[in-house]
Automatic annotation (TrEMBL):
<dbReference type="InterPro" id="IPR015590">
    <property type="entry name" value="Aldehyde_DH_dom"/>
</dbReference>
<keyword id="KW-0560">Oxidoreductase</keyword>
<dbReference type="GO" id="GO:0006210">
    <property type="term" value="P:thymine catabolic process"/>
</dbReference>
<dbReference type="GO" id="GO:0006574">
    <property type="term" value="P:L-valine catabolic process"/>
</dbReference>
<dbReference type="Pfam" id="PF00171">
    <property type="entry name" value="Aldedh"/>
</dbReference>
<dbReference type="GO" id="GO:0004491">
    <property type="term" value="F:methylmalonate-semialdehyde dehydrogenase (acylating, NAD) activity"/>
</dbReference>
<dbReference type="InterPro" id="IPR016162">
    <property type="entry name" value="Ald_DH_N"/>
</dbReference>
<dbReference type="InterPro" id="IPR016161">
    <property type="entry name" value="Ald_DH/histidinol_DH"/>
</dbReference>
<dbReference type="InterPro" id="IPR016160">
    <property type="entry name" value="Ald_DH_CS_CYS"/>
</dbReference>
<feature type="domain" description="Aldehyde dehydrogenase">
    <location>
        <begin position="17"/>
        <end position="478"/>
    </location>
</feature>
<dbReference type="InterPro" id="IPR010061">
    <property type="entry name" value="MeMal-semiAld_DH"/>
</dbReference>
<keyword id="KW-0520">NAD</keyword>
<dbReference type="InterPro" id="IPR016163">
    <property type="entry name" value="Ald_DH_C"/>
</dbReference>
<protein>
    <recommendedName>
        <fullName>methylmalonate-semialdehyde dehydrogenase (CoA acylating)</fullName>
        <ecNumber>1.2.1.27</ecNumber>
    </recommendedName>
</protein>
Amino acid sequence: MVASIGHYINNKPVAGKSGRTGDITNPATGEVTAKVAFATEAEIDEAVQIAKKAQLAWAATPPLRRQRVMFNLKSLIEKHTDDLARHLSLEHGKTFDDAKGEVGRGLEVVEFACAIGHHMKGDFTEQVATDMDSWSIRQPLGVVAGITPFNFPIMIPCWMGAMAVATGNAFILKPSEKDPSAPMLLAELYTQAGAPPGIFQVVNGDKVAVDALLKHPDVPAISFVGSTAIGEYVYHTGTQHNKRVQALCGAKNHMVVMPDADLDQVTDALIGAGYGAAGERCMAISVAVAVGDIGDKLIHKLAPRVQALKIGPGLDPQSEMGPLVTRQHRDKVMGYVDQGVKEGAKLVVDGRGLKLQGYENGNFMGGCLFDHVTPDMTIYKDEIFGPVLSVVRSGNFDEAIKLVNDHAYGNGTAIFTRDGDSARAFASNVKVGMVGINVPIPVPVAYHSFGGWKASVFGDHGIYGMEGVRFYTKLKTITARWPTGIRSGAEFNFKARA
Ligand code: NAD
């Protein structure tokens, strides 16, 4: 039975009207499980008009009451964690435990939003001039939109939506067309949590829906997470239409392994960060930089672990790594492996031939491990977004940090060492937005902020924490004097303060 997924407008699911749909497939079996509607420009406009009306009352709702909705949402997400995670496993392919972890990382931002009254409180200065006070406040932008990628269908909508809604905006989510079921359930949870109709809506679709949001005159801000090519397009199109845009994009995250690092710890870290979620994480480690003479030892430890990865459907509790999201994406990743071999890298573990009995139509591939990768190779330059780890050899610390700094992407990075001085020099000199010291995937907690540098981001502001509050609000500064200050009569001179 193939389900139909429409949109979630005005606090209820509605059918799509365009007649255009996309297939949702179970990546483990290749079976089409649902058809998702692709919105027209008119359907986007309908959602925006509903949101615009609803937002006025929502912005005027005291933050304490808005945060109570967030408290309710927090409980509902906790209650429905398994339901959300099941959707993620069935449409994205990740393992059930990893999917629950994803829900948890989204939940943290909802929890941060539970204190929005505190986060939004302004600054006040008494007596900026004689008998004159000044204060700054942050006010919501209006109707804001989020465009999200396939790889975190619940976490990233929580990063954007919770911050946007709690700060008093109405939020329209355009999720990835590959795995929309978890975002649709999230919308239902907002309704149950007490969000008024029109405050959190989901409009499914493709480029038509994205373009309609980017050009809509009543949408002043766009958050985007996805690939660099589309993020750059979203940033330029949105800003051309005078919008505030934050676009968080692709990555090629390096882990620098210093000669003094504990190689067992490093191996565990690389296996989890390189092959977890089949490498389909923007914070996955895809390059290990072996510094000094540890390259052979590292390969020797990694190779059997990559070969032994337990690969299977996400809902099988034995699986450590699931399938890739689509057949097309798996073939693209395999194409990169072919290219790496052609360009002269040494393929130490070849996962291309993996066959799983009973899952012949699934998008599975085994883990791949390359050694002697060099910066001129395509597999080094491009984001592969699959279970492929490249080991690069580097003579010393300076060469290693130069590699990281010269790479086009700058999302995350890590150093593994026991030397505080190397770690400190790395953290202060590396040109990357998120840095781990003996932590392979340094995704910041909700009260810090997430964001990369270089080709991993367009626009300004991280995506949650106080950066999120700033992105979704505009600053207003008021300077006031009360009548006693003008008792002495009119003033004609523009005076210096104080
Ligand atoms: P994608 O760029 O293909 O899609 C992202 C969103 O853009 C989706 O909603 C999609 O429907 C929409 N889209 C796709 N093509 C479009 C077009 N031509 N015009 C307008 N909109 C379009 O990305 P993806 O494959 O879903 O996700 C994987 C990418 O996301 C990777 O590059 C990964 O690194 C990146 N990512 C980055 C972060 C981060 O925080 N930096 C987090 C997660 C994922």
